[in-house]
Write a structure and sequence with these properties.
This is Ig-like domain-containing protein. Keywords: Disulfide bond, Signal. The protein is mainly beta. Strands 5, 7, 8, 10, 11 and 12 form a 6-stranded mixed β-sheet that branches. It has a 5-stranded mixed β-sheet with strand order 14-21-20-16-17, with no helix packed on it. The longest helix is centred in the last third of the chain and has 10 residues. β25 and β26 form a beta hairpin. The protein has 2 helices and 33 strands. The termini are far apart.
């Protein structure tokens, strides 16, 4: 028995302002010529009567009719694995349309300027590999589909920060760890190897950029931390240069994960331990996790990896009977020593670079 089947383009779930195409195909209809009659439910009699007069195989429903019941489409952007990077890292921005996933193409913008390298944004993912200093900025995306094109609203803003592999200015954190207990104190200081002044500590917290409070010269002191102090902190010069961004997390629970606030160099030893608020010492029995998977159980409350590799990079946390820490991203850097020939003919080691910087040096050699 022949059967009529309706298909909908671009999707059965559409947004106000989109043009929708309905098509009627006859399965098992053979070579018979068919005429078509369309019916609609749930609308006023005037539109229902005009709709039923359509005898075409395809029907276009455009802006302004009573089928348009869903709000304007909204794009949303998120970042993986994290928005605070060192030059040479890889990062992916993902653009999604809330409540719909079919038929969209995507456009990307940095600091409100349209990015022409669309191949990086294919399929809703925009990948920077390797990330470079000029990629620093605030990113948004927008999606479109159909003909004529229907556009979503612009997404939320997503900042990306990329710092150089060679740091003349360092942000020194005391205590030197990425996670901290609420009510504890914290000191952050910008240290310039050239001993010049003019650097201040700034931060990005809860979508707001501001100077670090209670700042004396290039040092910021927070007497009593709160969860609202969670964010990214960096050193900024009077001319607006940004250096050495670090992620600081404040936890109001009883357990934190103690790890290096800076990236770990490949081949070095990585030590993690669970710290309890009341004792301020490692908890004896703790489970350690990476990217959600259990990796070790320790009765010392401490986990050590003697030779770190890139595979150890990821989100780490610990768990005990007293509670669970927040997640910390641990970065692993490859290294190379760069030697300079001095005028005297002797050699000196000038810097340690990431693996991506090695590739750049090789290409420019």
């Amino acid at each position: 028995t022949p059967k009529a089947v309706v298909t909908v383009r671009p999707d059965e779930r559409v947004f106000r302002g989109e043009t929708v195409t309905l098509r009627c195909d006859i399965k098992w209809g053979g070579d018979t010529e068919w005429t078509y009659r369309w019916e609609i439910e749930g609308t006023n009699d005037q539109y229902k009567n005009s709709f039923s007069q359509i005898s075409k195989q395809e029907v276009n429903i455009s802006s302004g009719n009573r089928w348009e019941h869903k709000a304007e489409a909204q794009a949303a952007v998120r970042v993986s694995p994290q928005p605070w990077l060192t030059e040479g890292d890889s990062v992916t921005l993902i653009c999604e349309v809330t409540g719909s996933s079919t038929g969209w193409t995507f456009s990307w913008f940095r600091d409100d300027d349209h990015l022409s390298d669309s191949s990086r944004g294919a399929g809703g993912s925009y990948t920077l590999s390797p990330a470079a200093l000029q990629h620093t900025g605030v990113y948004t995306c927008r999606a479109e589909r159909g003909r004529p094109a229907y556009y979503t609203k612009y997404s939320n803003t997503q900042p990306l920060w990329i710092t150089g592999v060679s740091r003349s200015v360092s942000l020194v954190v005391s205590p030197s760890r990425s996670q901290h207990f609420s009510s504890d104190s914290l000191s952050l200081s910008c240290e310039d190897q050239s001993n010049s002044t003019g650097w201040t500590v700034r931060r990005y917290t809860d979508r707001k950029t501001e100077d670090c409070s209670k700042q004396t010269g290039s040092t910021c002191r927070i007497v009593s931390l709160s969860t609202s102090d969670t964010g990214v902190y960096w050193c900024q010069s009077e001319s607006g240069e940004k250096r050495h961004p670090l992620n600081i997390t404040v936890h109001d629970g009883d357990v934190i994960l103690v790890s290096s606030v800076d990236p770990v160099i490949e081949g070095d030893t990585l030590t993690l331990h669970c710290l309890h608020r009341s004792t301020n010492s490692p908890i004896l029995r703790a489970d350690f996790y990476k990217d959600g998977s259990h990796i070790q159980n320790q009765t010392t409350g401490e986990m050590s990896i003697t030779t770190v590799s890139k595979s150890h990079e990821g989100f780490h946390y610990c768990k005990t009977e007293r509670g669970q820490s927040l997640h910390s991203w641990i970065s692993v850097r490859g290294q190379i020593f760069v030697f300079n020939i001095l005028s005297s003919g002797s050699l000196s080691v000038s810097a340690v670079y990431s693996r991506a910087a090695v590739q750049m040096l090789q290409s420019e050699r």
